[in-house]
Amino acid sequence: MKASRLRLGMNLWPPFLFAGIRVEEISPDYRYARVRMRLRPWNRNFFGTHFGGSLFAMTDPFWVLLLFHQLKGEHVVWDRAGEIEFVAPGRGTVRAEFRLTDEHVEQVLERTGSGAKALIWFDTDVVGQDGTVIAKVRKQVYARRKRDKRLAHA
After folding, report:
1. Residue 153, domain member (yes or no)
2. What pTM value is reported for the model?
3. What is the domain range of residue 80?
4. Number of H helices and number of E strands within the chain?
5. pLDDT digits 0-9 by tens, 45-99
6. pLDDT above 90 for 106
């Protein structure tokens, strides 16, 4: 699927649409993504700052999506764990960026080459308009090479 089509679909996806989360960019090579969320009445908490669940949601699918496309469908890839540390109150527009490096991909390929699983941690900062870190998010992604179905049935 073209990255531009995926971006459009994600912007219409109800969990993002109703939280006010917008995917601004997914690079055509699936190595980079940028997402933003404006502070709106439907995504603010009791204290008038960004709801923590929305901050976590805006970072949720990207590491898996980027890695899956780099591995060209030859691996099972999914989220295994996640954690968030709230650093400062989120006001205004917040953004997060995801950059998948050659080292990330090589690490997964090396670990999964023999059929083993790879568990890789990725870090993402959610930042405010002035560059202040609002939240630090860590996601653990699971990857394993798909088993050859022809061999499994032999």
Report:
1. no
2. 0.89
3. 3-145
4. 6, 6
5. 999 999 999 999 999 999 999 999 999 888 999 999 999 999 999 999 999 999 9
6. yes
Beta carbons within 8 Å of 112's beta carbon, 6+ residues apart: 75, 118, 143, 144, 145
Local structure of residue 40 (DSSP, 8 states): -
Q: In what order do the strands lie in the sheet with 75-86?
A: 21-26, 32-37, 94-99, 117-127, 133-145, 75-86
CATH code: domain of residue 50: 3.10.129.10
Confidence of residue 153 (pLDDT cuts 50, 70, 90): very low
Cβ contacts of residue 30 below 8 Å, gap of 6+? 3, 65, 66, 69, 70, 100
Give the total number of structural domains in the chain: 1
Tokens of 94: 């917040």
